[in-house]
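Internal ticket #5521
Category: modeling
Description: The requester needs a full-assembly model to guide mutagenesis choices. All entity lines are attached below as received. Residue total reported by intake: 452.
Assigned to: D.W.
Attached entities:
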Amino acid sequence: MPMNDTTPRGFQEVNFDGLIGPTHNYAGLSAGNIASLSNAGGISKPKAAALQGLSKMKALMDLGLTQGVLPPQQRPDLAFLRAIGFEGPDAHLLAQANDADPTLLAAVWSASSMWAANAATVSPSPDTADHKVHLTPANLVSNLHRSIEHPTTTRALRMIFKNPDHFTVHDPLPTQARFADEGAANHVRFANTHGEPGIELFVYGVDVHDPSNSARTYPSRQTRAACEAIVRNHKLNASRVVFARQHPDAIDAGVFHNDVIATGNERVFLYHEQAFATSRSMLTDLAAPLGQPLIPIEAHDTDFSLEDAVKSYLFNSQIVTLPDQSMALIAPLESSENPRVSKFIDAMVADTANPVNAVHYLDVRESMRNGGGPACLRLRVPLSDTELGAVHQGVILTDELHAKLVDFVSRSYPDELNQSDLLDPALAQSCIEILDELTQILDLPALYPFQH
Ligand code: SUG
């Protein structure tokens, strides 16, 4: 297993990527997510999508990083359709739901759990009072198709992070708008190195106690109340937590999560000047507990606009620390195609004032067409060697597991899907068979409701 052996105390950030599921499709379900809305009704390519995701995982592993895999969910979720009163054999059930409201049908087929940055918020053991890794699965209540993810996400995380000596997987927050939570997509952790106590930045779009200055066009998905609840549950030290509000103009420009406009790694903080409504004192607040300044990389409107940021998804890159302690930017191909953004990236990589000295452009276009870039596809979990040893090893990527998953996807996933395929009961049945095989490959027996 690749180890970051120069990191103090044998600590490293492990990225767990969501394996893209066989029902990946373009249904236009996410208000405020411009890619999702503009590609609605298009033909998706589930096999190509999953292979792109697996190539990304392999690329990170080949850079010397430890990479994990999170399983997709059971879709279509026919139990949800039955719970809201549709009846009969599968073909009838699917047709009834479609006749009543095609978005209900689409919701139960969505492969949206691929965006693992929304699976949970993670606080690593150096930050928590009991020195355990705390994970809170996101309730995702802002969108119907995502609100049905958390039961299986919780189950999967409890199977993967099972050992109670090291891990606490909390229940999701109460499933109501006041506690709307979208997970790590609105959370950035800074630290001198991953293994040292950090400072956790919680970013929210809406505060029930301060409704002024809210986004007008698009919904805000993360609440301050949710962030505060997670801070309490994770037993974080209040002096090492900072809250920041998303700029309403950014949300209205399509920044539906903070990770569309800002990211960080160790002391590096990459963001657009219009990301936050909160004042610039935030940078000082973040740096104070670390005893060293942050290394800010700020993109100005004169470099490129919010619209360029949303189209190119530069800020949805991953910044990773490599085994030699240098950093690399793992960026979506789209950001190399925008001349203003690629100029900014070239300058960042050339600038010796920051440790990012390489860029790798990856093709995750199938996911990007639904608003999911490289960082959306992964949940970052900083782990000590002992904690990593306690993780369920069936989901840690090796060359062998990668080859098995490539073979599995190539053999079993549909090549293409369009919205009319979602009426097909035979496709629903074949998805069950596909997922059954996957639980054997990942050694996660009885993960799915159909296996109980
Ligand atoms: O929640 N898209 C996802 C994309 C999530 C990206 N995640 C992060 N930024 N971390 C969402 O909006 C689109 C599904 C559809 O329209 O078919 C969707 O759910």
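Resolution: model delivered.
Comment from assignee: The mean pLDDT is 96.
Ticket closed.
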